[in-house]
Structures are given as C-alpha cells and as structure tokens.
Design goal:
Elements lengths: L8 E3 L2 E3 L3 E3 L15 H9 L5 E8 L16 H16 L4 E6 L17 E2 L8 E4 L2 E4 L4 E2 L5 H17 L4 E5 L5 H6 L14 H19 L4 E5 L13 H12 L6 E5 L13 H6 L4 E5 L4 H9 L5 E4 L1 H5 L3 H7 L28
Parallel strand pairs: 3-4, 3-14, 4-5, 5-10, 6-9, 10-11, 11-12, 12-13, 13-14
Antiparallel strand pairs: 1-2, 7-8
Bound molecules: P-hydroxybenzoic acid.
C-alpha cells in the first residue's frame, strides 16, 4: 500500500502518528533568563497533532545565543521550563525533539557573556545585522576558535543533550544548517582554518562528527537527527562545491544509525540556487529523511509515495495553523501567517490562530 502524509512511521525509536512534522521555528518568546514559559507550552501543545514537533532552535550554552528571548537548554531553570512543554505535548499524544543550536558568528557582543566577541571557525565577518535587545546592529568580526576550545564546545552539546532528556524530550536534532556554527565549519566560505578542522572535506566535517558522536553517546543514535541546508545562502554562507560537501556529510553521518537526516532543500528565502541532486544526497544516508522547504500537501504526498522522504517538515504554515494535520486531511483552507508577529511579542500571532473548531 502506498504511504502518504497520514501514514504512521518510525524515525529511529520515535513513533510518529503521521508524517507531518512541525519544523523548527524561532519565535523569541522565552521569559527572563531564556526560560520557557507556560505560553510556550500552550503554543507547542496546540500543535501536538503533528507526527513530530521539532522545537525552535535552542542555544546549548551562554555563548551559543544570537537572538533575544530564545529559550536555552544550558541551565536548571531552562530544563524546568522545558518540562512544562514536553509534558503538555505528551499529554496530547504528541512527540517532540529539541533542536540543539550554537549560532557561532551570527551573534553580537551585546548577546554574549561579558560582551565578548562571537566565536566562529575563522575571523570572517558576516554581511548583515544581528537582532539584539537594542534593535538591529551590524555584525562584528568574530573571534576564531582555538583548537583547544573545540572539546569544550563538543562537551556543551553533550551536556545540553543530557538536559534535553532530563526535560522529557523524545530526542534531539543537531542544527548543522542555515549558516550557524556547525554549518560555518562545514562550508569553505566561512572555514579557512589551517588545522585539522579546515581545508579538506574530512577536516571541515570533523566538528559535526565529533558533536554527533558526543550527542549519540548521551541519547542513543535512534533518538538523534541532524539538520543540514546544502543550498541555503542565509546568514551569508556559501560553499564552492555543495554537492561534494554534503554528499560527504551524509555518507559520514550514515554509519551512526541516526533517526533521521533533515534537509532544507533550497534557499529559505526562495533564492535561486545552483543545481543539486537531493536524490543523490539521500542515497548516501541510511536512515530516515525529513524533507523541508515550501512543500504543500500534494508535493508532500508525492515525496513520501516515491520514497524520497519519510516525513515532511512544514514551517511558516505551522505558525498559522495549529491543526495543520486536520486541515490537510480535510483539504480545509489554511490561515495565513502574519509575518509581523513571527519574532517576539505575546500571544498575538502565537497562540491565537483559530482551529477549524474555532
Ligand atoms: C531565525 O531566527 O531567523 C532563524 C533561526 C534559526 C534558523 C533559521 C532562521 O535555522
């Protein structure tokens, strides 16, 4: 029998009631100390009919932050805050994994402990501006991480994973996409290191593999996913040979036996992108595959029926449609997301989108 968005499946050890995944979405509504609040639990619980929820990107350490009011997973109060979220989602039968995030150079001294410079593989300033508590400010030239500091970053991922499991998550997703720290190491536009973490494909992939091993050692491979975005130019990132690089990334991750690879299959802003064979990428990786980027119901069903993807992650449309699964099932009209309330604010544009029930 042919599978579609509504067929149950398993990604690693995580049982999904359907193949409609809520993509990670930054919403900037955490409380003081980057602690999740009751309203965040309400927001995620409203979306618990998704086969799987991937949380908003969640900083793994104080230096991993790059935006205001993002919830962290590096202290006890944050773990307590997240417990309300996982309990609320589980009470409605949902599954939820936490996305582990280090922004690297996509930050600003005003968001860093001691107003320090953000860190990166190499001291290359991104074009553009950081979102800070004081408004938009130009990015600065980051500080290149010393090789001696990298084990500490790997340890931060491991500790954050322990925290996520303590908070009740069903698993974790390593964010290696969208121009943040691990992606900055992968791509040659941002990684110009001369040591074992720069240069060759093996070297540029090394930090991601060390992080993956550390996270797998804590959570078990069957509860770990990795997100990549081979073509996304977001955050001023680039690579001279993305197919070569990301085929290598996928084939190097494959032996871990991970729950899934989650792939942003283009530019997040709809940018024109070079040719890329995502089927070829997919063949390099044994394990689940979550496809993301502007899929609708028909394309989602087609990608699942053809075997291209095991599940489809829906982003902006999930902001506006808490009951997206039911709406897609019924071919009901979708609410339109209000961009003005995507980042920060209160319940407006967050927990007040109507369901079909009203
Ligand atoms: C954002 O805040 O715009 C953002 C955060 C994480 C992503 C992508 C975009 O992976």
């Amino acid at each position: 029998m042919s599978q579609d968005l509504f067929s149950p499946t398993k990604l690693g050890s995580i049982q999904l009631a359907n193949r409609i995944v809520m993509a990670p979405l930054t919403r900037n509504r955490a409380g003081q100390g980057n602690v999740p609040q009751p309203i965040n639990a309400e927001y995620y619980a409203q979306r618990a009919s998704a086969g799987l929820i991937i949380t908003e990107a969640t900083p793994i350490s104080a230096t991993a932050h790059g935006y205001p009011a993002t919830p962290g997973i590096h202290d006890a109060a944050q773990v307590e805050g997240w417990k309300q979220v996982t309990a609320a989602v589980h009470a409605k039968g949902g599954k939820i994994v936490l996305q582990l995030w280090h922004v690297g150079r996509i930050s600003h001294p005003s968001l860093q402990p001691g107003n320090a410079l953000p860190v990166a593989p190499s001291a290359i300033k991104p074009a553009g501006q950081a979102f800070t508590y004081e408004g938009l400010q130009d990015f600065v030239t980051p500080r290149a991480l010393a090789i001696e500091e990298l084990p500490g970053i790997v340890a931060d991922y491991a500790r954050a994973t322990r925290n996520a499991l303590d908070a009740g998550f069903d698993g974790v997703e390593i964010h290696a996409a969208n121009g943040y720290l691990l992606d900055q190491f992968l791509r040659d536009g941002t990684n110009q290191r001369q040591d074992e973490y720069g240069g060759s494909l093996e070297n540029r992939t090394r930090l991601l593999l060390e992080v993956t091993k550390a996270v797998v050692d804590v959570a078990g491979a069957e509860r770990v996913g990795v997100r990549i975005s081979p073509l996304n130019p977001f955050n001023d990132i680039s690579d001279s040979a993305p197919q070569r690089l990301f085929n290598h990334v996928a084939s190097s991750l494959s032996p871990f036996g991970l729950a899934y690879l989650h792939v942003v299959e283009g530019g997040m802003g709809g940018e024109a992108t070079p040719d890329f064979d995502f089927e070829d990428l997919r063949r390099q990786f044994k394990g689940g595959y979550i496809a993301n980027l502007a899929y609708d119901k028909a394309r989602g069903n087609a990608a699942i029926a053809s075997g291209h993807a095991d599940a489809i992650a829906y982003g902006a449309i999930y902001i506006a449609n808490p009951d997206l699964v039911e709406r897609l099932r019924q071919d009901a009209p979708l609410n339109t997301p209000d961009q003005a309330t995507f980042y920060g604010g209160d319940a407006k544009g967050y927990t007040d989108y109507p369901t079909l029930q009203g």
